[in-house]
Amino acid sequence: MEYVLIVISAIFVNNIVLSQFLGICPFLGVSKKISTGIGMTGAVTFVMVIATIVTFFLQKAVLEPFGVGYLQTISFILVIASLVQLVEIILKKVSPPLYQALGVFLPLITTNCAILGVAIMTIQKDFNIVESVVFAIANAIGFGLALITFAGIREQLDLMDIPKGMKGTPIALVVAGLLALAFMGFAGIV
Amino acid sequence: MNQWNNFSKGFFKENAVFTLLLGMCPTLGVTSSAIDGLGMGLATTFVLVMSNLVVALIKNFIPDKVRIPSFIVVIATFVTIVEMTMQAYVPALFDSLGLFIPLIVVNCLVLGRAEAFASKNNLGSSVIDGLGMGLGFSMALTMLGSIRELLGSGKLFGTIIYPEDYGMLVFVLAPGAFIALGYLIAFINQVKKEA
């Protein structure tokens, strides 16, 4: 039951993009087409789950026993940056089709604050390892849901007659605001 | 004169938020009040200036291939310093900024300036560039924070302007951040076109 709560809360109520403001850069940057949105979601899901598991053990096995909790930020970002490189190299060798699909998005992920954000939130919420993995997957789904919905709207938006001054980023931000307003309807479920 | 241009470009011509669209996460996440926006802006400015300074000093010793990881370590060091200092001296601000303080590490603005400017220019101009960019970012965050605070809760920097009951609550919540920033960018674009 508690897993269901974690999942619903992460996907709908506290959506990582629309209510926590993490991962806005890819949300605005790669949301022009649905297909790139799907690719980005795949890459984020992949890295987010692996990064959360690795940083979880780093925190519990290294930082806490040695009492160096203040190194959390610096060690997490280093681990995530090298992990992304590692994933890129392994994917290239093991599964070229998957690399073809996700390759261009991987370098962008290092500076995606959603990854580091989820890793830090997992520690702050004091989850165990299973809860952490569930939390990471749910957040990745929430990210995908917001990104793909937004990409769908933006594809339609290209055909619309928009006031000149609002074209491009401004109208995209207002649409994102309305989407966030819709997601606020989920508040109070959990 | 040249240095002045270098400093002032961060405010208008190459403003991080309005023109380059960098560092959007903290821009939207911490601007529910003007004071939070200003605090976040100044914390980012400190990290930006210091990381530009160090990167400009060590740029000749770093092999090209490990450039980005080295920059990230430098940035993360200063973020940790800011984090601990704020926790000690301004705990209230530290609590309201929360997760976004460690996330300065992944603010594309900071890494972007290190890579695009400090790794190619000398010490003096790098520091001035960092200061200009950082203060421009603070200005944008403070503007957005003031607008949201004024419309949402009828206050400005905590001073009551009109009774809170007449405020539009949505502007201090998540959707208001997107909508206010959207209109602000449209407005700035218009001003720029006329200028």
Automatic annotation (TrEMBL), chain A:
Enzyme category, top tier: translocase
Keywords: Cell membrane, Electron transport, Membrane, Translocase, Transmembrane, Transmembrane helix, Transport
Gene Ontology biological process terms in this record: electron transport chain
One Gene Ontology CC term in the entry: endomembrane system
Subcellular location: Cell membrane; Endomembrane system
Residues passing through the membrane, by range: 6-30, 37-58, 70-91, 98-123, 129-150, 171-189
InterPro entries: Ion_transpt_RnfA/RsxA (IPR011293), NqrDE/RnfAE (IPR003667), NqrDE/RnfAE_oxidrdctase (IPR050133)
EC number(s) reported in the record: 7.-.-.-
Membrane topology: Multi-pass membrane protein
Pfam families: Rnf-Nqr
NCBIfam families named in the record: PRK05151.1 (NF003481), rnfA (TIGR01943)
Task performed by this protein: Part of a membrane-bound complex that couples electron transfer with translocation of ions across the membrane.
PANTHER family xref list: INTEGRAL MEMBRANE PROTEIN OF SOXR-REDUCING COMPLEX, ION-TRANSLOCATING OXIDOREDUCTASE COMPLEX SUBUNIT A
Subunit structure: The complex is composed of six subunits: RnfA, RnfB, RnfC, RnfD, RnfE and RnfG.
Family membership: Belongs to the NqrDE/RnfAE family.
UniProt-recorded name of the protein: Ion-translocating oxidoreductase complex subunit A
Species this chain originates from: Carboxylicivirga sediminis
Taxonomic lineage: Bacteria, Pseudomonadati, Bacteroidota, Bacteroidia, Marinilabiliales
Automatic annotation (TrEMBL), chain B:
Transmembrane segments: 39-58, 70-90, 96-114, 126-147, 167-188
GO-annotated biological processes: electron transport chain
Chief location category: membrane
Enzyme kind, highest EC tier: translocase
E.C. numbers: 7.-.-.-
Protein topology in the membrane: Multi-pass membrane protein
InterPro entries given in the database record: NqrDE/RnfAE (IPR003667), RnfE (IPR010968)
Compartments where found: Cell membrane; Endomembrane system
GO CC annotation terms, alphabetical: endomembrane system; plasma membrane
UniProt keywords, alphabetically: Cell membrane, Electron transport, Membrane, Translocase, Transmembrane, Transmembrane helix, Transport
Keyword Transmembrane: yes
Main function: Part of a membrane-bound complex that couples electron transfer with translocation of ions across the membrane.
Similarity-based family: Belongs to the NqrDE/RnfAE family.
Subunit structure, interactors included: The complex is composed of six subunits: RnfA, RnfB, RnfC, RnfD, RnfE and RnfG.
Designated name of the protein: Ion-translocating oxidoreductase complex subunit E
